[in-house]
């Protein structure tokens, strides 16, 4: 006849984001490593050559970190005041950095002292970079100017002073050795050609520009400032392609993934958002402990390094498959044993003897099948509470059978304390609350006469009471908020209706006016 | 031309199979069981119904094989008759008229000519005390015999046949009632009475429920209300009797039966577990659990190879003696209250309604058979009295039948309501429904209505479901794609929640094209646009709580109909938003026909239900059927016919395309037909088919094929000679003449005309039909022959005969033909006078 039907364990839909390829990709990082710097981290730059060390600029120092090192493998500390924007050259041998005193310094990675020193800016230089011909350096400073320096002669080749506010960000074109972009607090982004005296193109961002980025193809320009990230099409004369508003505080840094398919933006709102560069939709987002100032991705997205205002450097390394294989392999029967005879096709003259399929039942199901209710409840409580849904499902089943009270009664101190700790942990969880509140009521009914005999149990009862009181307060607060929101919504809809009416009247008036004029 | 046939109300869906203990035939090939007024003969192997023995005019209460002749069966009924049947051919042999209501029937092997029956004491309905009496069956050759020779044996016994049992070789009879066990010894004419105390200290409930006697030893087994079984021995002494107790059942023991040899005792009860006690000891017991529902009767076959249990859910389970279920005979489950109503599965055209607890059953009306059960609740059913079970309360199919929505609820107290809505998707591959989405608590209160939006095949609209709840809301659920990287999946989620002044929502329904949704809130009908979910208009003309709501169809799609609980039927025009007409009728059920504009309304007066068929554009009903039934009509449904039936009268034209089925308060399934009862009889000449579809043994494979080939060869060579025999075999009249036992045949004069008619050559089909009619009318006992079959045979035979005659006699002259026809038309009834 019909076989025993096991207890149905309800599955609850996972709230929040759905699992996409992106979430799988971007979640595949190990737990972050935190490194404390001396001040706010304003720039992180990866060396373009293996072993992909990275330079971190914070306060008056530049630290070079190895890929997995927690300690800096090298430090440049010849700065009187804050250093800014330490950037590698394409071959990874030279490093350039700006400084608060307005001097741009060029370092050899192996040396300690500066190779060159470019003087000429009168105020702090916040942005420096190598042009892609490797022999020139571009810098932008708070004196509203940006300059191109020749490395061998250490002299300024050209100087632009078109910006009307601090120049705080910039980037170079990888394709054209003369092309670079600067963003300024005067809300504009300007494209310069080192061969010409004037800017080639200006786009109006609308907010002080904090970061600019050129796509590898050189055709698209990304600017970040205020809460906006804007994408411009340079080839069509600086036309706005898309404006993204996904952060609720100023966006401070931009970065492209190694494939160029994803754009990352970090913001003072402590989030890093990842956009698809085809749809410009947020596909994933990271959460950090403090406001983000700088962000860098290692080649092949092996490492994400984020620098924050509190001077903490957050390093995440990608997980690799090999780490899983390291687990000791259990000795299992060969695959053959499982498939033996499975794919044998019976011939026509074969006599087929059917064997009833034995269904495997869980331990609690076996006990429930034989009506051992207390034992069934014990089994699911002992499962280290990793699967509270199963515990609650069994409680529900017992309740349906009308034997929940029997299962709860007759427990000694240790058994009861297990049950109580389960209740304390999960009673306020909305999924389980209706069932667990019922259980709590029953327990109170059953064990009321013995309260006061055991200190452990009494403590737990008090704790349960406390949790429930807290929850009640919380719920009332929520209801208040809901009421406020309702009132707000009500007024909003009212306004809409009136504004519509106004429009209507305006229209009618206009018609009347026209009639009059006619 | 066509006579105005009256509209007939026909009961369908079969009656209870578990009315009395079923009996096996001697070879255990057939199972005989009482089913309402009939006795049904089932094949134990194929589970098919082979014969229906009709003849009793009231409930059949007991059946037993004739101990002298195992091919015969006695049955007794509340109509006061005992009938003797030949069940292999399905023929009534004899009727004994006793004149009392017979509640049970016992016959012993050695007491030939007398049987034992249980009759009410004063032949009154009201009296609750009954007597066991023996009836002498007179040996006269007549068909109908009066058997009035009654002699009282035991007085004041229980009515149920389970409460009385006959002991070893008929030496004694044991009967239980209340707290007493009575044993009457026939030889000594002595009654021993063994009382039990009502309750003991342990809270036992000692009331007897059933009794069985050991076939070989002096041992009586009795079942009790508290689940105990007592085995009584040594009961021929008044004082020194002993009993041992077996206790496993936690509730009332419903029936007990000993195996043929008596070495094992079977017991069953509410737990729906069959328990086999070996050697009457407490430790040697075996179980067959989860039989579905309460076991009401247990019986064993004479050869000891089978047991069978009758269940309260209209089911008989045939069980091997090694406690393996071998076959299940399942009727329409009419267990509890049908809350889902009658729903039609658009795919199979099967009737879908509550079945076993927690299941929906798919019931095929054409073959009168249950197709399958779908487990909705998917929880272990605990058989315990007073337990709050999860009930299935609502079910609905989408237009194409690809989605099934069900709502189940469990109500512990007023405040604690557990609701679950499940959406099932039809899987083409497995040909069954699979669970797609489960929604906990779709509403805060009871779900009152559930309907899918009708979608056309061409239009690619998302499937939409609307639920209305007592919490004053209606919710719109749509199918959404929520697949992600790991697995693609489709699920249902809530799209819109609507309410109207927080009144509880009663019903909801979509218009035919799915563009409008009507939801009734207490006394107000609201109409919503199904694209934007905007409230379009409200109707509340005659004050009263809305009971039913439906849109008109086809040409009447601009009308909305509603009924109120204060006795109004209203029709609103949706274009003018005004009341078109209203009528004062206490309508209980309103059901539109999906294929026409017709709407069926069932009204309820004091103690009768009436049916009105009308079109919404005309307030005058074109068909009224008064006094449909005495009970309240609970649900009704139109089921589209596969082939439109030709209905003679204009008035009953509404029956041609779909059939109306009605479920009453007492769980009777009724339908309407214009045909007479004889015409409606389903072709039950299945017997041959059943026999042929029996197991093909290896022996047959070896020999049968060979023979078959030989036969066909012979046929080919012998040609005409074989043909001759073929003709004689095919004629139904001849067949009947040859196959019916001689002693039950009517007189030869009676059959003469039919016989001759069947031998005559007929030229036209019309004459053949006449012959058929005559056959039908004259041979009332030939109920096995369906008209269709006969007709077919006849026509075939006609063609053959003419061809055959054409070969032998070149041509009949016209005058000869006329002569023949004249002879055929002549009345042969004069033969009867001779």
TrEMBL record, chain A:
Protein name listed in UniProt: U3 small nucleolar RNA-associated protein 15 homolog
One GO process term, biological-process aspect: ribosomal small subunit biogenesis
Record SUPFAM superfamilies: WD40 repeat-like (SSF50978)
The U3 small nucleolar RNA-associated protein 15 C-terminal domain, residue ranges: 343-488
Described function: Ribosome biogenesis factor. Involved in nucleolar processing of pre-18S ribosomal RNA. Required for optimal pre-ribosomal RNA transcription by RNA polymerase I. Part of the small subunit (SSU) processome, first precursor of the small eukaryotic ribosomal subunit. During the assembly of the SSU processome in the nucleolus, many ribosome biogenesis factors, an RNA chaperone and ribosomal proteins associate with the nascent pre-rRNA and work in concert to generate RNA folding, modifications, rearrangements and cleavage as well as targeted degradation of pre-ribosomal RNA by the RNA exosome.
PANTHER family documented for this protein: U3 SMALL NUCLEOLAR RNA-ASSOCIATED PROTEIN 15 HOMOLOG, UTP15 U3 SMALL NUCLEOLAR RNA-ASSOCIATED PROTEIN 15 FAMILY MEMBER
Record key words, sorted: Nucleus, Repeat, rRNA processing, WD repeat
Keyword presence, Cell membrane: no
WD repeats: 118-159, 244-285
UniProt GO cellular component terms: endoplasmic reticulum; fibrillar center; small-subunit processome
Compartments, record wording: Nucleus, Nucleolus
Nucleus as UniProt keyword: yes
Top-level division of the source organism's lineage: Eukaryota
A matching Pfam family: WD40
């Amino acid at each position: 006849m019909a076989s025993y039907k096991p207890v149905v364990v309800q599955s609850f839909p996972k709230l929040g984001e759905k699992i996409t390829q992106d979430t799988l990709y971007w979640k595949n990082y190990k737990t972050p490593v935190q490194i404390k710097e001396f001040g706010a981290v304003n720039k992180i730059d990866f060396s373009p050559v293996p072993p992909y060390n990275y330079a971190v600029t914070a306060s008056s120092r530049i630290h070079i970190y190895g890929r997995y090192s927690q300690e800096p493998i090298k430090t440049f500390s010849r700065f009187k005041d804050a250093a800014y924007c330490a950037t590698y050259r394409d071959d990874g041998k030279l490093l350039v950095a700006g400084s608060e005193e307005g001097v741009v310094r060029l370092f050899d990675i192996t040396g300690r002292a500066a190779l060159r020193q470019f003087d000429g800016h009168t105020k702090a230089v916040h942005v420096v970079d190598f042009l892609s011909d490797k022999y020139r350096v571009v810098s932008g400073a708070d004196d509203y100017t940006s300059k191109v320096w020749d490395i061998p002669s250490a002299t300024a080749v050209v100087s632009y002073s078109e910006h009307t506010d601090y120049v705080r960000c910039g980037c170079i074109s990888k394709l054209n050795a003369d092309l670079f972009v600067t963003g300024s607090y005067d809300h504009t982004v300007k494209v310069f050609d080192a061969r010409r005296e004037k800017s080639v193109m200006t786009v109006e961002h609308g907010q002080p520009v904090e970061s600019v980025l050129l796509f590898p193809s050189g055709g698209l320009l990304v600017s970040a400032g205020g809460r906006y990230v804007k994408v411009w099409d340079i080839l069509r004369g600086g036309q706005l392609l898309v404006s993204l508003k996904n952060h609720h505080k100023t966006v401070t840094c931009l970065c492209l993934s190694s494939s160029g398919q994803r754009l990352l933006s970090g913001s003072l709102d402590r989030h890093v958002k990842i956009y698809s560069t085809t749809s410009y939709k947020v596909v994933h987002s990271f959460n950090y402990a403090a406001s983000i100032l700088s962000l860098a991705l290692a080649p092949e997205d092996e490492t994400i390094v984020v620098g924050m205002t509190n001077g903490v450097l957050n390093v995440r390394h990608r997980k690799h498959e090999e780490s899983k294989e390291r687990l000791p392999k259990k000795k299992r029967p060969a695959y053959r044993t499982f498939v033996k005879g499975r794919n044998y096709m019976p011939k026509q003259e074969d006599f087929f003897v059917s064997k009833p399929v034995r269904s495997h039942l869980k331990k609690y199901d076996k006990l429930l099948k034989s009506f051992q209710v207390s034992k069934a409840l014990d089994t699911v409580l002992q499962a280290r509470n990793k699967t509270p849904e199963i515990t609650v499902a069994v409680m529900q089943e017992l309740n349906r059978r009308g034997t929940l009270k029997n299962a709860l009664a007759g427990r000694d101190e240790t058994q009861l304390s297990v049950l109580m700790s389960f209740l304390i942990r999960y009673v306020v969880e909305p999924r389980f609350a209706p069932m667990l509140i019922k259980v709590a009521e029953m327990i109170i009914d059953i064990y009321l006469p013995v309260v006061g005999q055991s200190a452990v149990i009494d403590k737990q009862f008090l704790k349960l009471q406390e949790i429930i009181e807290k929850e009640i307060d919380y719920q009332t607060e929520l209801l208040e908020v809901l009421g406020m929101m309702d009132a707000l919504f009500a007024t909003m809809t009212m306004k809409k209706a009136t504004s519509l009416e106004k429009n209507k009247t305006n229209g009618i008036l206009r018609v009347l006016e026209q009639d009059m004029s006619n | 031309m066509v006579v105005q046939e009256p509209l007939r109300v026909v009961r369908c869906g079969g009656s209870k199979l578990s009315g009395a203990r079923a009996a096996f035939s001697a070879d255990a090939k057939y199972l005989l069981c009482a089913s309402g007024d009939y006795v049904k003969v089932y094949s134990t192997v194929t589970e098919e119904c082979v014969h229906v023995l009709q003849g009793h005019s009231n409930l059949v209460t007991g059946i037993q094989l004739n101990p002298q002749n195992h091919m015969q069966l006695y049955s007794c009924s509340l109509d006061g008759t005992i009938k003797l049947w030949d069940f292999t051919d399905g023929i009534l042999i004899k009727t004994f008229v006793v004149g009392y209501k017979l509640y049970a029937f016992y016959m012993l092997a050695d007491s030939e000519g007398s049987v034992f029956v249980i009759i009410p004491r004063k032949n009154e309905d009201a009296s609750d005390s009954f007597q066991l009496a023996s009836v002498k069956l007179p040996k006269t050759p007549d068909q109908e015999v009066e058997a009035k020779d009654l002699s009282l044996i035991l007085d004041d016994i229980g009515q149920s046949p389970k409460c009385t049992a006959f002991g070893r070789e008929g030496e004694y009879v044991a009967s239980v009632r209340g707290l007493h066990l009575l044993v009457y010894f026939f030889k000594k004419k002595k009654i021993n009475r063994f009382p039990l105390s009502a309750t003991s200290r342990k809270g036992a409930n000692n009331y007897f429920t059933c009794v069985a006697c050991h076939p070989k030893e002096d041992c009586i087994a009795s079942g009790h209300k508290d689940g105990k079984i007592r085995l009584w021995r040594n009961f021929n002494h008044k004082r020194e009797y002993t009993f041992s107790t077996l206790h496993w059942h936690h509730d009332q023991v419903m029936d007990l039966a000993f195996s043929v040899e008596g070495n094992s005792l079977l017991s069953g009860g509410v737990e729906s577990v069959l328990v086999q006690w070996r050697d009457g000891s407490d430790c040697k017991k075996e179980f067959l659990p989860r039989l579905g529902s309460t076991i009401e009767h247990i019986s064993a076959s004479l050869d000891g190879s089978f047991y069978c249990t009758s269940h309260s859910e209209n089911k008989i389970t045939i069980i091997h003696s090694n406690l393996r279920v071998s076959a299940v005979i399942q009727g329409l489950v009419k267990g509890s209250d049908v809350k889902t109503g009658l729903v039609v599965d658009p795919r199979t055209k099967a009737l879908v309604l509550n079945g076993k607890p927690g299941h929906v059953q798919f019931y095929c009306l054409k073959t009168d058979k249950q197709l399958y059960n779908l487990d909705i609740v998917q929880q272990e059913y605990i058989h315990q009295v007073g337990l709050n079970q999860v009930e299935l309360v609502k079910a609905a199919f989408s237009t194409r039948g690809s989605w099934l929505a069900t709502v189940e609820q469990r109500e512990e107290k007023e405040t604690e309501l557990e609701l679950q809505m499940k959406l099932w998707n039809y899987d083409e591959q497995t040909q069954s429904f699979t669970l797609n989405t489960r929604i906990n608590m779709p509403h805060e209160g009871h779900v009152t209505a559930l309907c899918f939006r009708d979608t056309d095949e061409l239009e690619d609209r998302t499937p939409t479901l609307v639920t209305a709840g007592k919490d004053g809301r209606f919710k719109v659920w749509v199918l959404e794609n929520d697949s992600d990287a790991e697995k693609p999946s489709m699920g249902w989620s809530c799209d819109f929640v609507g309410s109207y002044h927080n009144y509880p929502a009663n019903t909801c329904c979509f218009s035919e094209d799915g563009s409008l949704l009507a939801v009734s809130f207490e006394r107000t009908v609201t109409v919503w646009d199904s694209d934007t979910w905007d409230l379009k208009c409200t109707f509340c003309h005659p004050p009263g709580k809305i009971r039913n709501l439906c849109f008109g169809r086809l040409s009447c799609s601009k009308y909305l109909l509603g009924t109120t609980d204060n006795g109004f039927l209203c029709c609103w025009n949706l274009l003018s938003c005004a009341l078109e007409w209203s009528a004062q009728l206490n309508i209980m059920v309103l059901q539109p026909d999906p294929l026409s504009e017709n709407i069926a309304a069932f009204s309820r007066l004091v103690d009768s239900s009436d049916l009105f068929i009308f079109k919404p554009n005309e307030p005058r009903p074109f068909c009224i059927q008064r006094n449909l039934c005495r009970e309240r009509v609970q649900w009704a449904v139109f089921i589209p016919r596969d082939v439109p039936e030709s209905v003679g009268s204009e008035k009953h034209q509404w029956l041609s395309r779909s059939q109306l089925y009605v479920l009453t308060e007492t769980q009777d399934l009724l339908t309407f037909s214009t045909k007479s009862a004889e015409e409606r009889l389903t072709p039950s000449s299945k017997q041959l088919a059943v026999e042929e579809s029996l197991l093909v043994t290896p022996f047959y494979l070896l020999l049968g094929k060979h023979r078959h080939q030989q036969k066909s060869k012979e046929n080919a060579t012998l040609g005409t000679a074989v043909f001759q025999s073929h003709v004689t075999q095919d004629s139904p009249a001849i067949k009947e003449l040859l196959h019916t036992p001689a002693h039950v045949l009517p007189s030869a004069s009676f059959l003469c005309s039919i016989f001759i008619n069947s031998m005559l050559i007929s030229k036209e089909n019309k004459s053949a039909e006449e012959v058929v009619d005559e056959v039908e009318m004259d041979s009332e006992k030939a109920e096995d022959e369906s008209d269709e079959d006969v007709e077919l045979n006849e026509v075939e035979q006609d063609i053959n005969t003419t061809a055959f005659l054409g070969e032998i006699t070149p041509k009949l002259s016209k005058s000869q033909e006329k002569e023949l026809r004249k002879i055929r038309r002549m009345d042969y009834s004069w033969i009867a006078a001779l």
